[in-house]
Amino acid sequence: MRKLTAVEFLSVDGVMQGYGSPGEDTSGGFRHGGWAAHFAADDELMAANAEGLSATGAYLFGRRTYEKMAAFWPTGPSDVPFTSHLNNTPKYVASTTLREVTWQKTFLLEGDVPEAVTKLKHQEGGDIVILGSGMLVRTLMGHDLVDRFTLLVHPLLLGSGKRLFPDDQEMRRLRLIDSRTTRKGTVVLGYQPA
């Protein structure tokens, strides 16, 4: 069975909202959009992200993350290995509002999301990676469908914003399977549910 890995960029206080650009997600009055720009040019971080490409056979997105990714990566920088891999690898979108997708090799999941993801995990192919998509990750965690977390924790406190792990969730034990720190202070942590 394919493994499902959630790859998440977080502040030390667990915020994942508005990682990439100032206007990315201002809901709830969030004003720190683009908070990770300083860390994006980290060569060590880029190398860590590239390591998992060969094992990745599919990507999974929620609607918002898909729309943001689809607006940039089809014409993304050709000198970044991630661009080609992302464009040429099957992508699946969990959404109740999208009716069509335009990015090459992208498919809408139909019906109950946990059931659709369970079927996807039973198909042949490499591992499935979720990028961002916090609401989707929380839904899949509630059904024990996430096999691994790769958390890239950047050294800053935002004080507000959407967090990956909500306050009201039940206790879950994780087992650390990998850790490293970049020169810019980003800690890359790999966890599996214990």
UniProtKB/TrEMBL annotation:
<dbReference type="GO" id="GO:0009231">
    <property type="term" value="P:riboflavin biosynthetic process"/>
</dbReference>
<dbReference type="Pfam" id="PF01872">
    <property type="entry name" value="RibD_C"/>
</dbReference>
<dbReference type="GO" id="GO:0008703">
    <property type="term" value="F:5-amino-6-(5-phosphoribosylamino)uracil reductase activity"/>
</dbReference>
<protein>
    <submittedName>
        <fullName>Dihydrofolate reductase</fullName>
    </submittedName>
</protein>
<dbReference type="InterPro" id="IPR002734">
    <property type="entry name" value="RibDG_C"/>
</dbReference>
<dbReference type="InterPro" id="IPR024072">
    <property type="entry name" value="DHFR-like_dom_sf"/>
</dbReference>
<feature type="domain" description="Bacterial bifunctional deaminase-reductase C-terminal">
    <location>
        <begin position="3"/>
        <end position="187"/>
    </location>
</feature>
<dbReference type="InterPro" id="IPR050765">
    <property type="entry name" value="Riboflavin_Biosynth_HTPR"/>
</dbReference>
